[in-house]
Amino acid sequence: MSHHDDHDAERAPGALSRNSTAPEFRPDPSIRQDVGVVIVAAGQGTRTGSTELKQFRWVAGKPMLLHSVQAFHRRSDVALVVTVLPRSHAADPPPWLFQCDVDRLLVSTGGKERIDSVWSGVEDMPDEASIVVVHDAARPLVTPATIDAVIAEARAGRAAIAALPVVDTLKEVDEHGRIVRTVDRTRLWRAQTPQAFPREMLEQAHLEARRAGISATDDAALCERLGFEVVVVRGSERAMKVTDEGDFGRAERLADTDG
Question: Per-residue pLDDT averaged across 92-108, rounded?
Fold first, then answer.
């Protein structure tokens, strides 16, 4: 799809070339590049109580966003990673962001809602990207096995999300905090990212949602709404979402354990 003028996007600086790319991020030219990745990093991260953008803060040895960019650039089948940043940072991204394969990196500007930021990234995908993966920068420790699993399902024609089964007892309460009922958890899962989609499915789901004026914090929900097949693959506790200040310490501890 063509790139539109209503949001900014730019390639990483040309001064950094493939020759300066670390070997671990150089793709195998014999592998078909059919995967495009949108990393959503456009939030302001106010819940951590810090003025610094949450996705730029360091965790487990590097900035949180860089974990995700590098995880996908280690895959030879990835054609492009679009990193969607807040407007305040997209025009001048932090230099550490380019510690990857700059030839497969695009910086784009986020929209008002998450759904707008994801769409911005999808629009920038090259034609050869028949699979689109959406990932939250706030989940820096996603495992290669999880990425493999969701992409494999998308290649089979289904949308797939990383998720974990609910293990806690769930209670529904009223506005006064009184328990109304205990919810059967046997079929309940906690959604994570990455989420992978056949590109045409994701584009149709987003276009239909925009026509209907529907927003969502979960791209899979947009596909479910149209009756597309969406499956879960087992995610990992390592893929926890860093939301509050206390989560940084928890992520550090998880990073020190085997995945």
Answer: 94
Residue 165 phi/psi, 5-degree rounding, is: -65, 145
Q: Quick one: DSSP state of residue 184?
A: P
d(CA 219, CA 223) in angstroms, rounded, equals 7
Longest dimension (CA), the chain: 62
Q: Is residue 76 part of a domain?
A: yes
CATH for 237: 3.90.550.10
Number of domains in the chain: 1
Nearest to 135 by CA among 76, 197, 88, 79: 197
C-alpha to C-alpha distance for 115 and 208, rounded to whole angstroms = 12
Q: Which residues contact 85 (CB under 8 A, 6 or more apart)?
A: 41, 42, 93, 107, 108, 109, 110
Q: What are phi and psi of 35, to 5 degrees?
A: -115, 130
pLDDT category at 19 given cuts 50, 70, 90 is low
Is the pTM higher than 0.90? The answer reads: no
Range of the domain at 234: 9-255
Burial of 101 (0-12, 13-18, 19+ CB in 10 A): buried
